[in-house]
Amino acid sequence: MPTRSRPAAVLAAVGATAALLLSACGSGTQSAPAESAATVPVVTTTNVYGAIAEAVGGDRVRVTSLMNDAAADPHSFEATPADAADVAEARVVVLNGGGYDDFATKLVETSGDRTVIDVVELSGLKAGGDEEFNEHVWYSLPTVAKLAERLAADLAAIDPAGADAYRANAARFTEQVAGLQQRLDAIKARAAGQRVAVTEPVPGYLVEAAGLVDATPAEFAEAIEEDTDPPVAVLQETLDLFSGTPVRVLIVNTQTTTPTTDQVERAAQTAGVPVVGVSETLPEGQTDYISWMGGQIDALGAALDR
User: Could you say which residues form the signal peptide (predicted)?
Assistant: First the structure.
């Protein structure tokens, strides 16, 4: 699916930031100093990836996440000179890719030699050609497990003294991810084939893994993601999901609400359809991927059981 395009002002801001970075970095290539415990600097574009990096790196890494505001739409994020400086100092950069955080791609291109993990590329999920692609790959549990393993390998290459710790942490984390998958499998066992609606494609991989059917008109979800109004007929088709034989659950992206999504949510509530919130970054006060994702999975399961 298409990613919401960035306004020209954002691209200009990224360009200005990149220029500042170039002037700060001289020739652009950094020498690689020897790392010691708790000093490997890691930058991630969102705090979701930051939480995963911290789970794998433990106290041997220093993680900076550029997007942390649970009340903001990540698609509207604008990089600052401070963000450029963080990327310039990082030994490992984790970005989503797939058009989701193009600002980070631009910063990495001008920041010299460092390890860059593009999670969309790592996932192997992206289809070729013009087929629409759901770039919200942190909702794909197999992808998250791959990321943990890749982080362990890359951090071990930078900090060999911590290799055993990184691998042990990654193994522990991937075991917890397997536990999340078991919870999804349990939902699938009792609710496979049930119809749900979404305001945006954000939880698509989770919905699919739970064996649920996304009944939302594709044009509606794409319009909301691209910050435009869906055609009247498409909106009505979406509202009709809550009448007759309604969908079982409405899943809303809590970070992108509009009068249109509010209207859809009111229709669900009027019909007695449970509403489950999901987000693109960790909520305030939440620092652990497993508990965050597990809470969303459990909320979905409870809503389906109503």
Answer: 1-34
